[in-house]
Amino acid sequence: MKTVLVTGGSGFVGRHLIDGLEADPSVDQIVVLIRNPVAWSDLPWAKHYKKVKLLEGGLHDLTQWESSPLIRKLNGVFHLAAMVAHNRREREAVFRTNVDGSISMAKLAQRKACRMVYVSTSGTVGCFKDANKKADEHAKYVHDTVGRWPYYASKIKAEQQLLEMSKNGLDLVIIRPPIMLGPGDHRYRSTGLLLKFLNRKLPMVIRGGFPMVDVRDAAAAIQKAMNLAAPQNIYHLPGEQPSIDELFSMLEQISGVPAPTLHLPEKVVLAIARFDEWLGMKLRGEPLALVPDPVVIEMGTSYWGLSSLFAAEDLDFKPRSARTTLIDTVAWLREHPPSEDH
Length: 342
Prior knowledge:
The chain is of the alpha/beta class. It has helices spanning 12-22, 37-41, 62-65, 91-112, 143-146, 150-166, 192-198, 215-225, 244-255, 266-284, 294-300, 311-314, 322-335; strands spanning 3-7, 29-34, 52-56, 76-79, 115-119, 127-128, 172-176, 179-181, 204-205, 212-214, 234-236, 262-263, 303-304.
């Protein structure tokens, strides 16, 4: 029996990965590490899975669940779980989850003598102020650019430590996707910007880049990485990399919703965001959130360029067009509007 462990299985990418694993005849059991099994049972799409077994636990308490019979024999670990928080107030929590949690899962993979496929982000190497730059799998980390953004800084540190462990026996494959879009974002996180656009809640925009890949293509590549006989340590999953203006132009054509026309300079938007943060912290201990966090503004005015030397051949990675992905994403969002809880 081939058993794989999936962290982050209740998320956007996890949902699509499990879909693929369910259809894979070589996989007999999909063990999903989950903190709240009750919340999993409330997911309507999760009820259809036949191979999934739930393992209650977290990334930091392996001693509580590592001896479970479900993973006595383990053939692979897909580590998707991460804390995505684009502000500097939650830096410690982000690092604890994204660095310490990843190291814990890597140690588990070592003890079980199986491969770990770790889903990182294109932002560790592919963030620039120049829209024409791109990073391949040999590119250096862009810590000088993203080091003040906790999510990306944590991913760099996690990658560095995991790659060091791979020199001492860890069977590791790192996958770096850009922003993932497509149907099925039941938490409305990756598609949050598109949702605001469709609801006409974007009165102004800034100039920057919006790299994207279809979540279905990314999930298929992540799944493929587990079975490669002699993989590279790192794979990029570049899709298309439109500018913010190009993205909204496509969305206008697809949805019929007019694209925002008011552009504010980066310095003006940053000043407003920092004042919003300062005033909110003074008044109530948290930002007013009238505008996005300064980290989000800094990220949004950057350009994200990615290329790959290996993904097409090794992972059979042939991503669909951005337009196709956006058509499917918009259709899904309109068919599944968020509840008041979101």
